[in-house]
Amino acid sequence: MAASPHTLSSRLLTGCAWYLERRAVQEAPHTFMHLFRSINRRWITFQHFTFLKRMYVTQLNRSLNQQVKRKPEPVALPFLEKTSLGQAKAEICEMRPLPPPSLPLSRKPNEKELLELESASIIEGSLDAGKETKDEKHWKEMKLQLDDLPGILARLSKIKLTALVVSTTSAGFALAPGPFDWPCFLLTSLGTGLASCAANSINQFFEVPFDSNMNRTKNRPLVRGQISPLLAVSFATCCAVPGVALLTWGVNPLTGALGVFNIFLYTCCYTPLKRISIANTWVGAVVGAVPPVMGWTAATGSLDAGAFLLGGILYSWQFPHFNALSWGLREDYSRGGYCMMSVTHPALCRRVALRHCLALIGLSTAAPILDVTTWTFPVISLPINLYITYLGFRFYTDADRKSSRKLFFCSLWHLPLLLLLMLTCKRPPGARGAGAEPQS
């Protein structure tokens, strides 16, 4: 039986309604979840915004307490010291804004993350607060102050080494035969001191790149930048010119020539040789042997056997002195790139030191033969010469820092005492020569 058109249309509408209703039931959960996620995401975004605003205010208040420039006393860490709000506000000197902490906006932060963020910010703030006190202990460039200039120039000229040079020059002048001329002595001492200051200043000017690598020399004025290289060279020139002029025209030309020769030998030969060959030690010993010769020539005007004897004593003394010193500074010299016996030839370093300790005994014995001292001098100087020889032998056999340190400190008092004994045993002018006749 054929269906009527009305029945077909009603059935078609019923089927469409049933299909739409079924689709609505199937897609309802997805639509609900989509709406829930959208609402939840908006809620999380708003909550994040509120949280970030609160954390920014907290960090800003904390920065007021941590960014404080303290007084000279050490700064305590914030999480080890509890300070009141009023005290923290009283210590505020300057405020530096901190960027707000960044958190991922994709999810809600939990309590563990909040605690980690807060502790990290506290530790970071404490490190910033203690950075100033740590920087004070580190190397930093020094600014030149007028009141500090004399001390800086004294260190530039190696004032202690200059004092040793002047003292050996004075000993050579006093041991020379003839009457003691005070004006000539003062001019000789002043001229020699100025020449030594000039040589030491030029030496430091040349060695700035290498001194910066050594712990022993890294605090020198040119390395620290306390003065400019131009000022150092100007100071050396202002010392060299009047120093050589005083020695040449105030004393005698021979002494002035020796002064010029010693400046050239120290700055142009010894200084560059330190990075090339171990021969620098022997050249440096010649530099140290010249000042007593200058004192002798200043008093006599000539190079006699006594001048070479004094120069020989200073020459031999420098080997146990410097070799023992360089033994304890081997790491420093190696780091600076210097070619020293203690670094490249340690056995030769100890052997040479012992040889010249023995040479001091022979040179002391030659002093009365050359009419410089009486025969009392070799006798009374024998104990100290034997002692430094014994320490040189211990340094040769032990080859350690302890023995080298003992030999070095012994050399510091050995030379002044030896020169003092020579002065006390100086041969009188009327008794010089084997066949000297008494004056009427």
Describe this structure in words.
- With 440 residues, this protein is an all-alpha fold.
- It has 17 helices and no strands.
- The protein has helices spanning 5-66, 85-90, 111-137, 149-156, 159-175, 182-206, 208-211, 221-224, 229-251, 253-273, 280-300, 305-327, 330-336, 341-344, 346-369, 376-398, 401-424.
- It is elongated.
From the structure above, extract its key features:
single chain; 440 residues; mainly alpha; 73% helix; 0% strand; disordered C terminus
Q: What's the SSE blueprint?
A:
Blueprint: H1 5-66, H2 85-90, H3 111-137, H4 149-156, H5 159-175, H6 182-206, H7 208-211, H8 221-224, H9 229-251, H10 253-273, H11 280-300, H12 305-327, H13 330-336, H14 341-344, H15 346-369, H16 376-398, H17 401-424
Helix pairs in contact: 1-3, 5-6, 5-11, 5-17, 6-9, 6-10, 6-11, 9-10, 10-11, 11-12, 12-15, 12-17, 15-16, 16-17
What does this entry show, briefly?
This protein is an all-alpha fold.
H/E series: HHHHHHHHHHHHHHHHH
How far apart lie the N and C ends? 180 Å
Structural class estimated from helices and strands: mainly alpha
Q: Which percent band covers the strand fraction?
A: under 5%
Shape assignment: elongated
Radius of gyration, in angstroms, nearest whole number: 42 Å
Q: Helical amount among residues, as a percent range?
A: over 70%
What is the number of helices? Answer: 17
